[in-house]
Amino acid sequence: MEDERWMSRALQLASEAAEKGEVPVGAVIVMGGREIGAGFNAPISRCDPTAHAEIRALRDAAARVGNYRLPGATLYVTLEPCTMCVGAIVHGRISRLVYGATEPKAGAVESARQTLQDDL
Questions:
Q1: 6 SS3 class
Q2: Which pLDDT belongs to residue 118?
Q3: Which DSSP symbol is given to 109?
Q4: pTM score
Q5: Which one, of 29, 33, 99, lies nearest residue 67 by Cα?
Q6: Per the residue annotation, which of 2, 16, 22, 54 is the catalytic one?
Q7: Which residues make Cβ contacts (< 8 Å) with residue 69, sequence separation at least 6?
Q8: Would you call 54 a catalytic residue per the annotation?
Q9: What are the per-10-residue average pLDDT scores of the chain (120 residues)?
Q10: Are the C-beta atoms of 41 and 21 separated by less than 8 Å?
Q11: What's the pLDDT score for residue 42?
Q12: Among 58, 115, 42, 56, which Cα is nearest to 83's?
């Protein structure tokens, strides 16, 4: 039930991205049953190739917690993360990743690449 609740929140964020003409991806970071970070895709509007939903959620969570490391946190994202986002997830020490759909073109968890299976 918790996974459905938080994925629903990520879908709301994806809708915000779509309303702004962005690729509709939303992400939320949860720790201890509460939202600590959220973001939606904004690379077009921000003229920033790193403004993916996951990166924005990680930045938000790190600022709120006061630490770039987020052990014990779960990241919910509507679409399988790309290589850049997987790297940030690893560096942020996210404990659990839940995504709603695979991304055949750039997904870096199970689709185009299996980055989390690499020896890090």
A1: helix
A2: 64
A3: T
A4: 0.93
A5: 29
A6: 54
A7: 92, 93
A8: yes
A9: 96 98 98 97 98 98 97 97 95 96 90 72
A10: no
A11: 98
A12: 115
